[in-house]
Every structure is written in structure tokens, then in C-alpha cells.
Amino acid sequence: MNTLMHIKHMGRETLAVFNRNKTSWAGLILLLILVVLAVAAPVISPYNPVEQNIVHRLMPPSADHLMGTDYYGRDVLSRIIWGCRVSFIIGASSVAIAMVLGTILGALAGYKGGYLDSFLMGVMDVLMSIPTLLMGLLIVAIMGPSQVNLTIALALTMVPRFARIARAPTISAKNKVYVEACQAMGFSDVRILVVHIFPNILGELMVMGSMWMATAVRTEAALSFIGLGVKPPTATLGGMIREGFKDILSAPWASVWPGLIILLIVFAANLLGDGLRDALDPKLRNEN
Fold it and tell me: Is there a contact between 106 and 128 (Cβ–Cβ < 8 Å)?
């Protein structure tokens, strides 16, 4: 009962701190709107995103095509909606995979210590020394451009970051009295990590997950822009910028609109991440 009351108290306190940061709500609402549009793409998309109509190519924004059409006569708004869907699927999937793998490796290294810690963190340091975009570029170039390969590539670039984030609080938590009590009672290492340590580091992982979601979307767009993303004619935001770039002076809407959407996604995810950091970090919460 005391534990449940403590959890409820922490939840109310966290929500109160989150409420004080109005920009966090702006980021959350904006991100939710974009996610809802992406999820409802089959229903709300006014046109087929891959259907070409050469007669209507490069039409400026109008009542029929609110954001104009591209070089192949495809509706830009419809392609943006479906492109957001692809970006969110790849971004969320890659962050989830990276968070799970990175947390397991980081928590294991921090809990066990010794040679295992040195080896795993040495590998993570090597991987972190390679820029995210370059690492993704190498992996996609080797595996080939596809939605699955792009997701795997982005996940692998983020695993070392989550491993580093999970390791430090695990080292701190394993020296706590309650962990030593669990060890004395003969609890398994897996149970201690999952039941007693993981909930204490979940907040930091959620904060970084929201921020790295923005990085994943941005990197996916960059790889699609250079032709190593999801293959055409599938609509992707980066691919739309690349396709419309050759007509940037005569038909800027074909590439400017998807660029603005990427900016909104990254901006909203970072605002949300800042709010979660303030709400979940005990030190910052006490300051507020």
C-alpha cells in the first residue's frame, strides 16, 4: 500500500512539474497531431500518394491540391501524410529496438562490472565515435535500401547511446540498500535488474528516447534524400525533398512543405523531451 501511494504521489508531482512547462505541452500536442494524421493516413489522405497525373504536374497550391502537386502530378499533401507515417514507423521502431538492446547491454555492463563492463563499453565507445549519419550510411549501403534495413541501421546507431545512459544509473542503483537486500535474499540477477533497477532508470531512457526519435526522423530523411532510404514510389519526407529539389525555383512547394514537416517533428520531439527531462529528473524537479 505504501509503495502504491508513493507511486501515485510521484506521478502527481511529475505531472505538476510537466504542467509548469507550457512548451512541453505544445510539443506533445503538436507531436500527437502529426501522429494521428500519420495513423489515419488511409482515411484522411485526399489522393492516392503514388498515383501519377502528368496533366496536373507542378500545380501550385489550390482548392483541389492544398499543397500543390509534384513533378509527377502527385498530391503533395497526400504524400506528406503518408511520408509522416513512414517516418514515425521507422523512427519509433528504431528507437524502441535501440532502447531495448542498449538498456540490456548497459544495465548488464553496469551491474556485472569487471571485464564484461570494460569490453562492452569499449565496443560502445568505438561505435559512438562514428557519426550517426555516417554509421547509418555505411549500414544501409551494405544491407541495401529498404524500410526494414533503414530501421535496423538507425537502431544500431543509437544502441551505444542508450547503453551509456543505462549503465551509469545501474552502477549507482546496484549499491543501494534495497539491491543488497535482494541479493541477500537470493534473488536472481535478472529479477533484480528487471524488477528493482530498471524502473529506476526508465525515466532517463524515456527522455532520451523522445529526443532520439527526432534524430531518427532527421537521419531517415537525410538517407532518403541521398537515395538510401525507402525505395520509390513510397512517399518519404526526405525522398520528397530530393524529388522536388530540381524544381525548387519554379515549384518550391514540392520540397519546402516536406522540409517544414520534418522541422515540426524534430521541434516537437525536442520540446517534449525537454519537458520529460524536467519532470523526471529529481534534481530539476526539486529546483522547480
Answer: no
